[in-house]
Amino acid sequence: MGRESEHLSDESRHRQRDDGDLARRTRATRGRYDRIARFYDLMERGAESGRLAAWRSRLWAQVKGSRLLEIGVGTGKNIPYYPSAVEVTAVDVSSGMLQRARARARALGNEVDLRLMDAQHLEFADDSFDTVVATCVFCSVPDPVLGLQELRRVAKPDGQILLLEHVRPEGALGTLADLANPLVVRMMGANINRRTVENVRQAGLVITGVEPLWRDIFKLIVARPGKA
To answer: 129-135 and 155-166 as β-strands: parallel, antiparallel, unpaired?
Structure first.
């Protein structure tokens, strides 16, 4: 009895350390995006004027169903692509980013249910959404597998998950990404060496398509929840 109790206590302490570390990393991510929110659109202007806008359009053309969730809405760059006659809920961990998303939604005349929320702990019931979308988000979620598991939970069994993500490249570029990643995270908040396709599988999602968009770095990932 005493040894079993001691073992359980050790497990509990380990779990508390893990939870505490995740909470610390999540606070750091929130603070980082709050700090850069006012400059974020300017920082991303070059990418948006290039291929990224076309990739967003390609992703949103695949949305199905009447109830949609966007994870990591940021400053609302996807709002112009939202389909009409669809109920959209969009969340972000940063209040600074959400403030700009609200302004963009008002300017566009779009009705969006915008909420402050952590992708790793979504405050929605199971099987709530027909489609869940994220664009360039799981590079910055502290525990990406946990976040993807939450997407799986809140998507309907016959629903879909659409992800536009940049991932770790192969070969020498991948090694370079590993070396540069700590500095990039500090400056931008995003990891450039995430193995997101593998993370999607690890989260229990069933991948139905991976479309390479630019070299082997940007990918459009289509998955289903894989629920019984």
So the answer is: parallel
